[in-house]
Amino acid sequence: MIIGIDAYFLYEKHNTGIGMLNLNLIKTLSKVDKENKYILFTPAITHTDTAEEITQNQNFSIIEYKNIFRNSRRIWLQSLGLRKQIINKGIQIFLGGGEYIPIFLPKNIICIVTIHDVVFALFPETISLTNKISYYTLFKISLKRANAIITISNNSKEEIIKYLNVNKPIFVIYNGIDIKKYYPNKEIEKDNYILFVGTLQPRKNLSNVIRAFNILAQHLNYDLFIVGASGWKNDDIHKIVKSLHPDIQKRINFLGYVSNDELATLYKKAKIFVAPSLHEGFGLIILEALASGIPVVTSNRGAIAEVFGDSVEYADPLSPQDIARKIQILLNDEDKQKKMIYYGLEYVKKYDINKVALEYVKIFDTINKNLKKII
User: Fold this and answer.
1) 41 Cβ contact list (under 8 Å, min separation 6)
2) Which of 49, 232, 237, 295 has its CA 20 to 30 A from that of 88?
3) CA separation (Å) from 206 to 38, 236, 346?
4) Are residues 227 and 242 in the same domain?
5) Are residues 18 and 82 in the same domain?
6) Cα separations in angstroms, 323 against 26, 52, 214, 299, 319
7) Are residues 267 and 209 in the same domain?
8) Are 159 and 61 within one domain?
9) pTM (predicted TM-score)
């Protein structure tokens, strides 16, 4: 098979969850699949080390197609020049890694779209106007053009069926991480901080994390480290911080976007990881934290309970008091911390990126064998 992949994230300078997930998947596919041919399409290569690692497999090649739309992935994917490149390379299956695919590809090319969640339908108030417009226009056209869907949990599959009213094959493949990169290191001494990771946007519920920290900070000597690029509608976050006592404000650290290596170290040194999101299609940051040997306080929203079971501590995301209480219980109970760390490390084994990549290869093969049914 000749498989084309949207590798826009080789160009994106600062990749967040979906971007990193796609790059890790492509890297791992290049290690586990020695039979199929893969052609990756990107506006340009920013992550040269990653590109070199991928192309060590001679069945993987990268096509750079740069145009005026290169800084908008969803628009760049619709470029007629990119369409021509995909057709000329004889692509049989095209995989889009995040909600959008090239909508003008001919029908003989099987298109698979990856849908992580339907937050735009569940929580429209947490989505920017630009994203709303894209979801209700270009995303719906992408969905119509797609021959099959990959999603990241059974919860997301149910929501896709319910809210998007689709009648096409939906395959569930859980996310995965490189467990050689995220692991506990007993030689690294823990620091007194609580860690939050996520783009600063309403859905990640950072406002209630800060409110919960304000409750804790009055009688616990811990700092709050916040990792994540600035997102949409985050003015309230900074207003909340400014309303706190100056001594507590000093203990809230906005680190912004950090490199993968820096993030891995921050995970290892944290005492508690907190992620009481309003909704997650999977919860990749929770997986990274568990793999790093940190107890996690999160919410029972979306697919989180399906994916992580009893390896995490659940709090009501709408209650700063409950978030604070669950954090304090963990901080005060070392035996419970050890138990949760053990459960977390056991759960992580199911989500090794190598297993995930092999699932993708199986699905490519399944789709290839059932072309007439799918087209």
Assistant:
1) 4, 5, 6, 7, 8, 62, 63, 65, 82, 85, 86
2) 49
3) 39, 10, 28
4) yes
5) yes
6) 36, 43, 11, 9, 6
7) yes
8) yes
9) 0.90
Per-residue pLDDT of the chain (375 residues; tens, 9 = 90+): 999 999 999 999 888 788 889 999 999 999 999 999 999 999 999 999 999 999 999 999 999 999 998 999 999 999 999 999 999 999 999 999 889 999 999 999 999 999 999 988 888 887 778 888 888 899 999 999 999 999 999 999 999 999 998 889 999 999 999 988 899 888 888 899 999 998 888 788 999 999 999 999 988 899 999 998 876 667 788 899 999 999 999 999 999 989 888 999 999 999 999 999 999 999 999 999 999 999 999 999 999 999 999 999 999 999 999 999 999 999 999 999 999 999 999 999 999 999 999 999 999 999 888 765 655
Which residue range is the domain that position 249 belongs to? 193-351
Joined together, the tokens standing for residue 20 give 């990193």
106 and 223 part of one domain: no
Owner of token pair 């809230």: 252
Domain count, the chain: 2
Write the CATH number for 57. Answer: 3.40.50.2000
The answer to the question of residue 318 being in a domain is yes
Residue 20, burial from CB neighbour count under 10 angstroms (0-12, 13-18, 19+): middle
The reply to whether 187 falls in a domain is: no
